[in-house]
Amino acid sequence: MPILFYISSLVTLVATVIAITRYHPVHALLYLVVSFLAMSMIFLSLGAPFVAVLEVIVYAGAIIVLFIFVVMMLNLGKDTARQESEWLRPKVWLIPALLSLVLLGEMVALLVIGAEGEMHISVVDPARLSLSLYGGYIIAVELIGFLLMAGIVGAAHIGKHTKKHLHRFLQEKEMEKQEINI
Amino acid sequence: MTPIGANTVLVVAAALFVLGLAAALTRKNIIFILIAVEVMLNASGLAFVAAGAKWHQPDGQVMFLFILAMAAAEISVGLALVLQIYHQHKTLDVEDLKELSD
Questions:
Q1: N or C: which end of chain A has fewer CB within 10 A?
Q2: What are the phi and psi torsion angles at A119 (to 5°)?
């Protein structure tokens, strides 16, 4: 259904624009959830139902919840929003936005010039996907397993709450600073 | 089913990627930069799925699964780093974090 694709891609783009312009982190995350849900609808209309489900579960579920937990733990609220509104002046965002707009224009021009044909969507069901995943891509699956393991160990190690250890040169500097203050 | 223009999907993916890029260039708060990176990864996943749908092959979706796992690992390590940075420096401003520069 092309009309579903067009509506949901419009929703995705609008929700992403709103999400990246919010000052309050929680508002940005909520608009990002809308963007991910609409993206899952795009995947469904492209004939990829398994990916659509995973988009909802992993992106809109797990990753956004992780973000919200961090926002909650750091207690980011009105102060952050005020700080953001101070940082995000037109002078700051205008030039990067224009440059990326130029890049987008180039990419769209290339895509439109090289236009060929239309997609005839046929659903690729999860059975075919898993046959391909555990057939030709088995090495890549194992490597992704390594990557996830490394991510877990790294996050557990980095996130551990430890005392602040200074290098001995920095320790000397800190001592000197304290002596000067005294 | 009636067809969707093959390039329309890629244009949507490109627009999403550029939005994420602009946000990553503009913002100074680490949390917002991580959100922008997430948007960009999602856009590249959309391009892969669109290519897979064009040729009726599952490979594009397989690549999306790999991008998904990579994004999850990246975001967990990134958020752990954000927590640690906040505990040590009491700020999330990327311009204040310049301990390595001297």
A1: C
A2: -90, 130
Report residue A29 as tokens: 């995350």
Radius of gyration, alpha carbons of chain B? 17
- What mean pLDDT comes out for the span B33-38? 94
Handedness of CA A156, A159, A163, A167 (dihedral sign): positive
Predicted local distance difference test score (pLDDT) of residue B1 = 53
pTM for this entry: 0.87
Contact residues on chain A for B9, CB-CB shorter than 8 A: 5, 9, 42, 46, 119
Of A66-70, A168-172, B80-84, the one with minimum mean pLDDT is: A168-172
CB-CB under 8 Å, B73 with A147: yes
Instruction: Report the complex ipTM.
Output: 0.91
pLDDT digits (tens, 9 = 90+) for A161-176: 766 667 777 777 777 7
* Residue A90 at interface with chain B, using a CB cutoff of 8 Å: no
DSSP SS3 for B93: strand
